[in-house]
Amino acid sequence: MITAQITGWASSLMGISLGADMAWVWEKVLQATWETLYMVAIATGLSYVFGLPLGVILVTTEEGHILESKGLNRVLGTFINAVRSIPFIIFLILVIPFTRLVVGTSIGTVASMVPLTLAAIPFVARMVETSLKEIDWGLIEAALSMGASAWQVIIKVLLPEARASIVLGVAITTINLVGYSAMAGIVGGGGLGTLAYYYGYQRYEDLIMWVTVIVLIAFVQCVQMAGDKWAGKITNQRR
Amino acid sequence: MFCIHAKGQTVLIFMGSKLKYARETDRLIQITNLSKIYHTPHQDILALDDVSLSVRRGEVFGIIGLSGAGKSTLIRCINMLEKPTRGSIMVDGQDLNALKQRELRQARQKIGMIFQQFNLLSSRNVFDNVMFPLEIAHIPPQQAQQRVAELLELVGITDKARVYPDQLSGGQKQRVGIARALANDPKILLSDEATSALDPDTTRSILKLLKDINSQLGLTILLITHDMNVIKQICDRVAVINESRIVEVGDVISIFSKPGTPTSQSFISSIINKDAPDEYISNLINRHSGSYSCLVRVSFIGASAGEPVISSMIKRHGIDANILYGNIDRVKDVPFGNLTLELIGDREAVRQSMEFLKDSGLEVEVMA
């Protein structure tokens, strides 16, 4: 119902008379939205599976930290910076051979998840790093003074203490990936990106273009709100 | 001073006229020639310079120094949060330098520590914060929960068990910190400026709690502070640290009555006024230029504070005594005071009066 309202509002805004093609637009948009959601959700999940441990390693291998290892820290840091400095649209093309190797094709939603995940991993690692660095060293010192191992410090101090901040990071990552997924859409990745590109850009179908934009705005708002709410709940529980 | 080894580990130490018995095993912490150097790209910083100290089982030992003196590094060397550059740390007969990682973690479970900033986990409530060290030590949950309940009772915050640290006052947070530090039945409690972030009333109540724990559980406490009041209220012995070196060690009462170094003197004068103002005294001396007068500072410790020594002196030697300044205080539980007197009269009578004061067990120091 809400979406019907949005489309209604959008079309009256643009002075377009709606007829039978409205149903067709809906079908297209709905399917594309679903594809985007699916793609972004899986890519976010997978990027945390790899990015979270990397973030933990980035922090703990720093000089003076619980798993100090200057070499590893430097190598990892440099690698992450290198990946992050490649614009996503180029990265997307660069990893096509790898995508083919993993998925068998470079076209479609499933194929898009590969570059999305790969690009998000270093981003997630840096987000997690920032979150973990907010933790007062005194807490780590206290745990060490009780005889905690490095693993116990990570599991019982670092991650729980940074939970609210990590949750906000998930929201930011998801929103970033929505943007990335649109780029993937241009090279046949499916989802709202493909829809907007094929119909909106190549066929001048303004309606589809606008509906896509509105859906994206709504989606990003929802993700950010959910993230804020969840993080707020974690923080409030402690007050 | 000399030592005689006799009957196993018993050592007799003659110090002045006092005979002290000390068993070697009574030295719970033995720090020998400890140095710590921090290497920075531009220079090496000497944080501890050849420090040797021993802490006896069951005592409250204080280390006092200004910020930057090295006390924070010193206390962190005792549980190896800072690795010593040179020297050894023995805790209960165990050389901490020689331990492997796993053994060190086990040793740390028996060395509790409390902090100025409390360092409680904000993601856990009070109960779970105290539970934390028990989880680290892999104590079975049921046993651990029972232990936590006992500890909360001991420090008096049972009613706050389900509350998160953000909702607690500073004093309550430190009580949680103490309960947490005691969870694994430590041999030693290290206190890193534990009362420095607290107001005077709360400081007093936390110090009282520490003192009770020391006397009831017989727990050895080693604390660092920059506040002489803390030393005065709960310490048995004190070490004064200045510019990375230990400059003085001794019983609190003797350091208070006879500080041997300028650093100790300035710490003591920060809380106890020993003298009347200078101009006041010089005016007085000029006034009596006719007859013989002598300015003395008399210090008394313990029992003699209760006897009418001054009045006996006046009666017996026929001199006048002008009381210029007086002060009485309490160090741990011993009364301790000093009096600035002007003795006026015959030169010989004044000399005899001073002898009399010394014979009565007082410290007499001629000022002018």
Structure description:
- The complex is a heterodimer of chains A (239) and B (368).
- Chain A has a single domain (2-237), classed as Orthogonal Bundle (MetI-like fold), CATH 1.10.3720.
- Helices cover 82% and strands 0% of the residues of chain A.
- Chain A has eleven helices and no strands.
- In chain A, helix 1 packs across helix 11 (206-237) and helix 9 (163-186) packs parallel to helix 10 (191-201).
- The longest helix of chain A has 40 residues, at 21-60.
- The model of chain A has no long low-confidence stretch (mean pLDDT 90).
- By secondary structure, chain B is an alpha+beta fold.
- Chain B has two domains: 26-110 and 186-269, Rossmann fold (3-Layer(aba) Sandwich), CATH 3.40.50; 278-366, ACT domain (Alpha-Beta Plaits).
- Helices cover 35% and strands 33% of the residues of chain B.
- Chain B has twelve helices and 17 strands.
- Chain B has helices spanning 71-78, 101-109, 126-136, 141-155, 170-182, 200-217, 228-234, 252-257, 262-269, 278-287, 309-317, 347-359, and strands spanning 3-6, 10-15, 18-23, 27-39, 44-56, 60-64, 86-91, 94-95, 111-115, 188-192, 220-225, 237-242, 245-251, 293-301, 320-331, 334-344, 363-366.
- In chain B, the strands form four sheets. A six-stranded mixed β-sheet of chain B has the order 9-10-11-6-12-13, with helices on both faces. In chain B, strands 5-4-7-8 form a four-stranded antiparallel β-sheet, covered by helices on one side.
- The chains are: A mainly alpha (239), B alpha+beta (368).
- The A-B interface holds A 136, 138-139, 141-149, 152, 156-157, 160-161, 163, 237-239 and B 79, 81, 104-109, 111-113, 115, 117, 119, 121-124, 132-133, 135-137, 164-167, 180, 184, 190.
